[in-house]
Amino acid sequence: MPPEPESLRVGDLCGLWRRSLLERADGSRDTGTWVRWLQGATRFADLRQHPLGSGLAGVRARSQLSREQCLELAHQEGFAGVLSADGRICEWHRTIDFQPDCGRSDAGSLHWEGAVLIERGRDVPYLEHWHRESDAASSPVWALDLIPALAAERGGSGGQAMLLRVGNWFMFARDRTQPLPTGSTLVECVSRAATLDAAQVLVDCEISFGAVAADARFCILRSSLPWRVNDALDPQLVEGTLSIEERGPDGAPLRRRWEIIAREDLAEPRAGS
């Protein structure tokens, strides 16, 4: 029998986590996927990547992707949203998801085994091992929920974003502009896309992970969009909006303004803070 879940509060989980093991219901195990989970006061973001093939090394923009490269990117996972806990079960409510909605809740119990946090699925049988990164600073902690400041960019029901910082780590999640169909996978969606342009749009969902350097630069280290690696996010507060350095479909630098619709902070966010 697995141990009884411990009474954990969301605040107990604040920090940066690394996954070392996923064990699925069929007994298969995954120890090779690169996974980081960044948890704030309640906001969270998560990026999961299998090793990407060398064929993506030269891609510098969405418009350069081939259908095969779109399919390779479609195997990634990443999401962001709000974590709730009732003392025994944690549930990750995804507001942004790289993959289509599977129709099931993302919920599980948590308990400690030594220094390892064990997660067991509630609705789907699985087991994960998590390790808190000991070198991660615990403050500042803040998150911003965002929508495009320009109404013309608010296409479909997508387009929202989140910027989360915990200590010297951050994650930026930006949804695609059009929602994905439910009950499918992103690989299936890309395979069925009528045109290459449509396939490229389907994978244009950014989940980026990075570090805040000593000079206060937000440097992207990993991303669901590989051409974003080594970019600087450079978030700046401008007249009540947040300005972020991004890239257009052709790879050209693009300064986008976001309207802040909600904030959660243990330290007031400032430009470069």
* Shape assignment: globular
Beta-strand percentage range: 35-45%
Any idea what the radius of gyration is?
Answer: 18 Å
Q: Encode the helix/strand succession as letters.
A: EEEEHEEEEEEEEHHEEEEE
What count of structural domains? 2
Span from first to last CA?
46 Å
Low-confidence stretches: 268-273
Beta-strand segment tally: 17
Q: What percentage of residues falls in helices of 4 or more residues?
A: under 10%
Overall average pLDDT: 90
Number of helices: 3
Sketch the major β-sheet.
8 strands, antiparallel, barrel
Structural class: mainly beta
- How are strands sequenced across the largest beta sheet? 1-3-4-5-6-7-8-9
Short description:
The chain is mainly beta. The chain folds into two domains: 123 residues, Lipocalin (Beta Barrel), CATH 2.40.128.280; 125 residues, no CATH class.
Give a structural overview.
It is a single chain. This protein has 273 residues and is mainly beta. It folds into 2 domains: 10-132, Lipocalin, CATH 2.40.128.280; 141-265, no CATH class. It contains 3 helices and 17 strands. It has helices at residues 67-73, 186-192, 196-202, and strands at residues 15-24, 29-30, 34-39, 43-49, 77-85, 89-97, 107-113, 116-121, 126-132, 141-148, 161-166, 169-174, 206-212, 218-223, 236-238, 241-247, 253-265. It has an 8-stranded antiparallel beta barrel with strand order 1-3-4-5-6-7-8-9. Strand 15 (236-238) and strand 16 (241-247) form a beta hairpin. Helix 1 packs antiparallel against helix 2 and helix 2 (186-192) packs antiparallel against helix 3. The longest helix is centred in the first third of the chain and has 7 residues, at 67-73. The relative contact order is 0.19.
